[in-house]
Amino acid sequence: MLGIAFGLMAATCWGFSAILVRLGLQHIRPTTGTWLSLLPGCILVMSLALIFNPDVFPELTAVAFLWFALSGLFNFALGRFFNAVSIQMAGVARATPLFSTAPLFATILAVIFLGESITPWLIAGTVTIVCGIALITSEQAR
């Protein structure tokens, strides 16, 4: 139950973030906004990591740092930049549902790079998510 609560809190934070990005983009460019949002996020996350898991850092390998650095590049830097540009160009209501296609891309990439298996439930869930997003986005386009 706690995991579900955290998931809902994350979704709420992302919803607030989209609104705040839209407001911020009225005054600055997406590249500047991306960097301004990365700095406090990095400081907060690193602080929490050091507070709750200080003994883990010396044990991490260079490969682990590399994977997390790449994750940060794609998720926080590039993802946040494309998020801001999308919100600026399409608006919050149209752009935000498109961000929810992440399960589709995660599934495809997990099969390709991690060798994960495709199950009927995985296909059904992914298709359902994508169809729902397509319906929301097409409705907003009219």
Could you walk me through the main structural features you see in this protein, from its secondary elements to its overall organization?
By secondary structure, the chain is mainly α. It has a domain of 99 residues. Helix content is 83%, strand content 0%. Helix 2 runs antiparallel to helix 3, helix 3 runs antiparallel to helix 4 and helix 4 packs antiparallel against helix 6. The mean pLDDT is 87.
Task: Show the helix and strand layout.
Blueprint: H1 2-24, H2 30-52, H3 62-90, H4 92-99, H5 102-114, H6 120-141
Helix pairs in contact: 2-3, 3-4, 4-6
One letter per element, helices H and strands E, the order comes to HHHHHH
Shape: globular
Helix fraction? over 70%
* Integer average pLDDT: 87
**Tally of contiguous helical segments:** 6
Strand content: under 5%
Number of strands: 0
- Which segments are poorly predicted (pLDDT under 50) over 5 or more consecutive residues? none
Kindly name the structural category.
Answer: mainly alpha
Euclidean distance between termini CA atoms? 38 Å
Rg over CA atoms, rounded to whole Å, is 18 Å
Largest sheet: none
